[in-house]
Known about the structure:
It is a single chain. With 423 residues, this protein is of the alpha+beta class. It has helices at residues 2-21, 68-78, 89-93, 112-120, 125-136, 139-152, 175-185, 189-195, 272-287, 382-422, and strands at residues 40-45, 51-55, 84-86, 109-111, 199-202, 211-214, 231-239, 243-252, 255-264, 266-267, 270-271, 288-294, 299-304, 314-319, 323-328, 339-342, 355-363, 366-374. It has ten helices and 18 strands. A hairpin with a 2-residue loop joins strand 8 (243-252) and strand 9.
Amino acid sequence: MKRKIELKKLLLCFLVLGFLLLPIPSVWSSSEKPNLTSESAFLIDNKTGKVLYAKEENRKMYPASTTKILTAILALENCALDEMVTVSYHASTSIPEGYSSAFLQVDEQLTVEQLLELLLVHSANDAANVLAEHIGGSIESFVSMMNTKINELGLSNTHFTNAFGMHDENHYTTAYDLATMMQYCIKNETFRKLSGKASCAISATNKYGTRRYTSTNELLVPNSPYHYSFVTCGKTGYTSQAGGCLVSCSYQDNLELICVVLGGKTQTNSSSRFTETKNLYQYGYDNYMVKTLLHTNDIVSNIEIKNGTNDTKNLDLLASTDLDVLLKSFLNENDFPFEIQLHEDLSAPIEENTVLGKVCYQIDGIEYQVDLIASHSVEKSKLFDYLVDATVILFILWLIYWGFLHKKKKKQKRKKVYRVRRV
C-alpha cells in the first residue's frame, strides 16, 4: 500500500516537473511587430527619419482634428502669442453639431496663445476658425495658406479644405505625410510646449469667466489609464468617418520617435489610438537604441604630412563631434566599417583643429558623416625650404653657366668667320 502511494507521489512529481519544463507560450514579444487594428500607422525616428514600423502609411485617410497641427504652426509662424483676436459671428457659429467647441462668444477677445491652447489641448474647432480668419482674412484664404505649406513640405498625398478637420471627401492626408508634418511642427519649441500640455486654464475674458480643460490626448494626462510618461506632445482626432486618430512624439534614452495612428477603432471603454500608439512606442524602444559610434576627439586615423617637420608631421585625425546612430538593439557599434575622405593636397602648415576631411558610415541606407580635425599644428619643414632654395639656386647657376657657354661659343664663331675673311 505504502509502495503504491510512493509511486503515485513520484509520478505526480514527474508530471509537475515536466509541466514546469514545458516552454511557456508568449502572449506578446516586444521583438515582434505589433499587430494593429488601426487602418494605418507609421513610426519613425525623428532625427534620421528611419522607419521603424509602417502599415498602409501612404493610404489616403481622413485626419479629423490632427489637421490642427498645421493650423497651429501657421498661427505660430504668422502671429505673436500676445496678439489680441476678436471672435467673429461666423467663426463662433459655423461649427457643425457634434464637433468639439469652446463656445467662444461673438466679440470675445482672446490672445493667440489662449486660442492655441484651446485648439491643441481642448481641440476646440471654433478656436481654429477664429485663428484662420485672423491670419488669412477669411477661412478660405487661410485654407489656401495651409495647402501652400503642404506643397512646400512636399506632401503629395495631402489636401485640406478646412482649418480643423471637419469631414470632407477632399480633406485627406496619409500617415506618412502627417509624420512629416509633425517633424516640421516640433522644430518650433512653442508648438512642442503647447501641444504637450496635459491641461490648460483660460483666464477670464471680456465675455466669459475662467475656463479649464484637460487634454484630449490621454497619453499626456497623468491620471488616465492610457498615460504614457515618455510622450511629450501630440494631437488627437476623431470623426465617425476618420475613426480614432493620433499623431504624437515621444522621447526616451536619447531616442525621439514620432508615431501616427489613423483609422483607429473605438470599443467600450477602450480607444485603440492610445493603446496601439503605446504599443508602437514600446516596440520602438525595445528594439532600437541610439549608440555612439564616435566620441568627440576620438582618434579615427593617423596620417603623415610629407612637408611637415619631424616633430609634427605625424598627425592624428580626430572626430569633431559625437556620432550617434540609431541601431537595432542587438547590433554592436563596433561592427560597422567606415570610409575616410580627406581633402586633396594636404600640406604644412596646418593649424590645430583644422578640418581635413570626414569619416563616413553607411548604415541601413542612411549616411552618417563627421568632420575630421587636426589633433595639433603641423609646422612646415625648413629642410624642405632649403631644398627648394638650393634647387632654385642651382637652376639659376645652370642658367648663368649655360648663358656663359652660349655667349663664349658665339664669340669663337665670330673670330673664325673674321679670320677666314682676312685670308
